[in-house]
Amino acid sequence: MSNPRDVAVLVGSLRKESLNLKLAKALAALAPPNLKLDIVEIGQLSHYNQDDDANPPSEWVAFRDRIRRADAVLFVTPEYNRSVPGVLKNAIDVGSRPYGESAWDGKPGGVISASPGNIGGFGANHHLRQSLVFLNIPVLQQPEAYISGVDKLFDEQGGIANESTRGFLSKYLTTFASWIDRNAAR
């Protein structure tokens, strides 16, 4: 088997006990052998300011380089006020600039939203997709992944306790791997 595809995973929550971070770690454990999911920290990124484009902070440069090296990106996010958390939007902005030099351009992507609520972050999922279209990130359309009841999802080891949800997420990752193969720059 060739090297697994490198997937940069961006988690939209900074909380130490973040349910979305737990989900991202569980996804990494569920990933098929042809995917390597790597959580990329975004909390250290200072707020995007165009005035800094000529002399960007070192954390911006490192983040952009990491995204460019990835074969694909996977966004795992909660919903804040029917949208994505500000920290995730900031990471997207940092990676997209300076204008014309976006690290996201053409990078295959996926979106998984998760919430303790019943609609599983539907608003955040769709709002994020609007930004990703502009950034030229071909996003996996099916299956859609809105994970509700995420606060009750994990076993004591941090794995997915519910067999049905574990099966769905495994299918999502397998489909995502095929999506990456079809859309990755050669």
TrEMBL record:
InterPro entries from the entry?
Flavoprotein-like_sf, FMN_Rdtase-like_dom, NAD(P)H-dep_reductase
Name the record gives this protein: ACP phosphodiesterase
Give GO cellular component annotations, separated by semicolons: cytosol
Q: Which residues form the NADPH-dependent FMN reductase-like domain?
A: 7-148
A single GO molecular function term of this UniProt record: FMN binding
Q: Which domain of life is it from?
A: Bacteria
One of its Pfam families is FMN_red
What SUPFAM superfamilies does the entry give? Flavoproteins
